[in-house]
Inverse folding.
């Protein structure tokens, strides 16, 4: 028995040694694992532990204001009084909501939403009950706050456009950040902030970074459920910069109201600085609605409107320039010597070219006309004749010099290029050679020709300032503004010349003066009678659809009952005053039928108001601009 | 310790004498390890004795008395008690399958009014005692024969199967491995282990089919914890972050961010080691492991000092089980093995495993106290 046990003991001892070795190996393995995790990989896990623990709370900076040239607020930030509820601080969310309902109006759907959200979110997360409270409501809740457990008051900021529809197209609007915005410029953590608004259209979009500012942040320690334990560090952000525009809010308002119910656009520009004083498009929309999220009804009314309120017709819509283009045709003809100012052309009311007959707007014809009269009376046959004598590329060259065919440097969202056809363009796009017959349509600003009202205003400005290539601008250049800066002419400011002979330009300008000042002029009825404010201009009536031979035979193109969409566009370009001009203006009335009847009176009234306000010379601007640039929206 | 004074089979020792004979070094080690546990529970509660540390201290105090009582009761009583204890444990396992209380999706407890019994815990001790008694009666030649092995293998697999049905995969594997360790110490040939291991590996695909979804998820999570960091991989990932950010000397007592900000789940129970390693760093973690290694060493030394096979196997079996607890728990929280729900002995918060371990330690001390007892291989008439 004893011997037997010693056998077992021997085996046991050996096994114990083996077991001990195995244990040692496994414990060694654990120690190695700890070394790996706690020493070798430690840095990585330290970072992860801090990421767990430390939450970065962004503090949104106030967005910069948008001001007109005199400091009038066009876009600003309004205090948004909100009331929130925190579940864990009240015994019954419903009871608190009931009491709150006695102080402010809480709709049934709001109530349902709050009850739903409160259930879904963690019990210490505040849930918004109502936004945009008035000060009275806010104060009332504040007064009763002891009876309102769990209610928290909060002052946030929302974008406010005090001029509502008036500046909507130029300034644009802000709205919630979309997926596409994140993809486009997602490097700013602010974009991830709930409730953050980004510039979506107009200048709000173009100057978004300038206006946005830099986020501040607060590092807070949170536990695994996201509750804040304490603040570790705070870094203040930088508020967005204000944006000072060239617009004159007062003139803008006048133009907007003058255009009224029409589907139209009007642009007013300082011909020497390029400052855009007015850029309106009607009908318009309220940008404030986009900030909080457009209601479905409002959105439908915008989308369903055939007058397209959302489109910026001043820059993002193209129209055939019609007769407003004739000045450039005349200049091209003069420059290339195919006609002289005094050479007369006979207008019998039409011109036959190949198999086609091209009609003048005046059925009986104008008879013999020299250039000034041809512009005054807008004779089509005269310009058929000049354009017939020119290569299309020469017409295009003059158009390009005056700013047509290419979007302006403003870079407004949706801004269009317009279209100035060339032989090369037609080959490339249509795959066909240019036909000389097509010159005739181009000669009266029809055919392929397209321009935006903004481009037409630039064209008028470049004619009026003596042929200098001013570019339009909507934002005042910062820092270099001095008193008298705006009073220098384009030439004195060193604006590049378009190299058009002043003598030839004078002929064309004389024609434009005749349009309003000569009794035969197409816009004589809309002349400015106020002393020293007289304007020069040019009417344009451009066809929306081609007038067929049958239309003409049946007289359909002159009937009054054609549908709105098929009526001609009415255009007018102008500058004022005729002596020492300062302001240029372009007006387009969609389907307004007649440039002289629909567009010219609008341009007249806008230019009178413009000269009355005289924003380019009005004092006080420079003083404001200095403080405005330094100051910040609060 | 003096051993010549410990008498032969016929002599009975007084209680006082037996208490004197207890291996107080081991008791001290156990108290040290438990104290580490108190400290960590104090920290896990955010620097408070409530709710864990104070209760753990009371349990440990009660358990310590129980341990000493078991240590001084005559070893032959435990020997006689071995088979009945095993039979009772099996009956309890059957009972739990029938009337057990469902908790955490598994049927593990029997509700006895003032306290609950977890039969699988009873089985852990009973299995060691029963196997030790069985092999005490075999010669080394008999151990080499397969037919003598059928009974002990059945003794292991029967309760393991029932525990697996509960379902409690961790405990079932612990029972199988503990049984295997006793077989190993009893002298079963190594090739037989190799064969069993091969069969076990071959059964994995079948086992996979029989596993519950949550068990499969645990295995999958173990294989790639980063795959689902907020879902089932959360435990392991957060645990590794806590360990790794602890570095060599830790963030300091009460300074662990992972545990205190509740990123660590089960920080007071299965993942208490992580709290320790975060606050005390690798130095603290290795110190605790070193304490455990000392306990293992004592355990093996006691086994080698015993003059009877029963005592050796009880001591070695319990030491093996204790080692498995430590190894599996630490390997689990460091991401070496799947999360199977094995507590860290004497440190994790929880009364049941504390009692099981202290009873086991009582038996270990019991073997030490009765190390020189003469026990015949055939016990039929020899037990007085």
């Amino acid at each position: 028995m004893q011997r037997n046990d010693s056998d077992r003991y021997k085996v046991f001892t050996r096994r114990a040694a083996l077991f001990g070795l195995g244990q040692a190996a496994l414990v060694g393995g654990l120690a190695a694992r700890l070394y790996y995790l706690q020493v070798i990989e430690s840095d990585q896990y330290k970072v992860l532990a801090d990421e767990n623990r430390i939450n970065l709370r962004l503090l949104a900076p106030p967005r910069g204001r948008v001001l007109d040239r005199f400091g009038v607020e066009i876009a600003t930030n309004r205090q948004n009084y909100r009331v929130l509820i925190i579940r864990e601080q009240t015994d019954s969310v419903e009871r608190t909501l009931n009491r709150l309902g006695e102080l402010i109006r809480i709709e049934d759907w709001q109530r349902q939403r709050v009850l739903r959200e409160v259930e879904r979110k963690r019990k210490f997360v505040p849930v918004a009950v109502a936004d945009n409270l008035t000060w009275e409501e806010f104060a009332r809740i504040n007064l009763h706050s002891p009876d309102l457990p769990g209610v928290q008051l909060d002052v946030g900021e929302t974008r406010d456009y005090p001029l509502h529809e008036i500046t909507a197209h130029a300034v644009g609007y802000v709205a919630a950040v979309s997926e596409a915005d994140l993809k486009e410029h997602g490097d700013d953590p602010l974009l991830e902030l709930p409730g953050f608004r980004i510039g979506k259209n107009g200048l709000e979009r173009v100057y978004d970074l300038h206006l946005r500012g830099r986020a501040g942040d607060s590092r807070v320690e949170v536990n695994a459920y996201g509750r804040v334990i304490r603040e570790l560090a705070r870094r203040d952000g930088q508020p967005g910069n204000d944006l000072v525009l060239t617009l004159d809010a007062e003139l803008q308002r006048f133009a907007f109201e003058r255009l009224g119910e029409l589907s139209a656009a009007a642009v007013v520009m300082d011909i020497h600085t390029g400052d855009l004083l007015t850029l309106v498009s009607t009908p318009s929309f309220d940008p404030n609605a986009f900030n909080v999220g457009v209601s479905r009804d409002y959105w439908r009314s915008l989308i369903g409107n055939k007058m397209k309120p959302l489109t910026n017709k001043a820059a993002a819509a193209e129209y055939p320039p019609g007769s407003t283009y004739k000045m450039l045709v005349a200049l091209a003809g003069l420059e290339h010597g195919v006609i002289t100012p005094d050479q007369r052309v006979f207008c019998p009311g039409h011109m036959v070219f190949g198999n086609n007959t091209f009609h003048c707007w005046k059925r009986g014809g104008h008879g013999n006309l020299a250039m000034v009269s041809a512009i005054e009376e807008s004779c089509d046959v005269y310009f058929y004749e000049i354009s017939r004598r020119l290569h299309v590329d020469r017409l295009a060259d003059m158009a390009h010099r005056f700013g047509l065919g290419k979007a302006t440097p403003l870079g407004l969202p949706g801004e269009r290029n317009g279209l100035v056809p060339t032989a090369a363009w037609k080959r490339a796009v249509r795959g066909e050679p240019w036909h000389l017959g097509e010159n005739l349509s181009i000669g009266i600003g029809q055919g392929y020709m397209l321009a935006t009202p903004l481009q037409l205003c630039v064209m008028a400005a470049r004619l009026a300032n003596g042929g200098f290539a001013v570019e339009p601008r909507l934002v005042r250049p910062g820092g270099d503004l001095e008193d008298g800066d705006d009073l220098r002419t384009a030439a004195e400011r060193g604006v590049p010349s378009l190299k058009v002979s002043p003598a030839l330009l004078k002929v064309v300008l004389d024609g434009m003066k005749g349009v309003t000042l000569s009794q035969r002029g197409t816009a004589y009825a809309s002349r400015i009678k106020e002393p020293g404010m007289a304007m020069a201009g040019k009417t344009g009536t451009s066809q929306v659809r081609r007038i067929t031979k049958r239309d003409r035979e049946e007289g359909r193109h002159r009937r009054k009952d054609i549908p709105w969409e098929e009526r001609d566009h009415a255009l007018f370009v102008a500058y004022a005053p005729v002596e020492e001009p300062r302001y240029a203006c372009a007006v387009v009335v969609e389907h307004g039928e007649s440039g002289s009847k629909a567009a010219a009176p609008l341009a007249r009234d806008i230019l009178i108001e413009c000269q009355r306000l005289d924003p380019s010379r009005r004092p006080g601007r420079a003083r404001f601009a200095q403080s405005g640039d330094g100051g910040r929206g609060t | 310790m003096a051993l010549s004074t410990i008498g032969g089979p016929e002599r009975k020792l007084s209680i006082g004498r037996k208490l004197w004979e207890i291996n107080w070094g081991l008791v001290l080690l156990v108290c040290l390890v438990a104290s580490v546990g108190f400290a960590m529970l104090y920290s896990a509660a955010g620097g408070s004795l409530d709710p864990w540390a104070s209760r753990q201290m009371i349990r440990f105090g009660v358990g310590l008395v129980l341990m000493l009582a078991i240590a001084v009761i005559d070893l032959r009583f435990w020997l006689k008690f071995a088979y009945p204890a095993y039979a009772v444990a099996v009956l309890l396992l059957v009972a739990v399958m029938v009337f057990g209380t469902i908790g955490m999706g598994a049927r593990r407890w029997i509700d006895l009014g003032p306290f609950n019994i977890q039969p699988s815990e009873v089985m852990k001790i009973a299995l060691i005692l029963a196997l030790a008694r069985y092999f005490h009666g075999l010669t080394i030649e008999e151990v080499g024969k397969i037919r003598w092995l059928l009974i002990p293998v059945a003794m292991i697999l029967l309760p393991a199967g029932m525990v697996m049905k509960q379902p409690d995969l961790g405990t079932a594997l612990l029972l199988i491995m503990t049984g295997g360790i006793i077989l190993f110490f009893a002298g079963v040939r190594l090739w037989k282990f190799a064969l069993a291991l091969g069969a076990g590996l071959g059964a994995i695909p079948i086992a996979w089919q029989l596993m519950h979804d949550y068990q499969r998820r645990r295995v999958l999570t173990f294989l790639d914890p980063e795959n689902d960091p907020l879902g089932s991989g959360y435990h392991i990932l957060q645990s590794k972050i806590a360990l790794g950010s602890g570095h060599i000397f830790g963030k300091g007592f009460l300074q662990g961010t992972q545990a205190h900000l509740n990123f660590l789940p089960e920080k007071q129970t299965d993942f208490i080691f992580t709290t320790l390693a975060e606050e005390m760093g690798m130095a603290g973690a290795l110190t605790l492991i070193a304490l455990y290694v000392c306990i293992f060493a004592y355990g093996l030394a006691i086994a080698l000092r015993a003059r009877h096979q029963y005592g050796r196997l009880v001591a070695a079996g319990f030491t093996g089980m204790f080692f498995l607890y430590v190894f599996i728990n630490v390997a689990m929280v460091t991401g070496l093995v799947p999360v199977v729900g094995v507590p860290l002995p004497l440190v994790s918060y929880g009364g049941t495993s504390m009692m099981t371990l202290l009873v086991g330690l009582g038996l270990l001390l019991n073997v030490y106290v009765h190390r020189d007892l003469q026990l015949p291989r055939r016990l039929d008439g020899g037990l007085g």
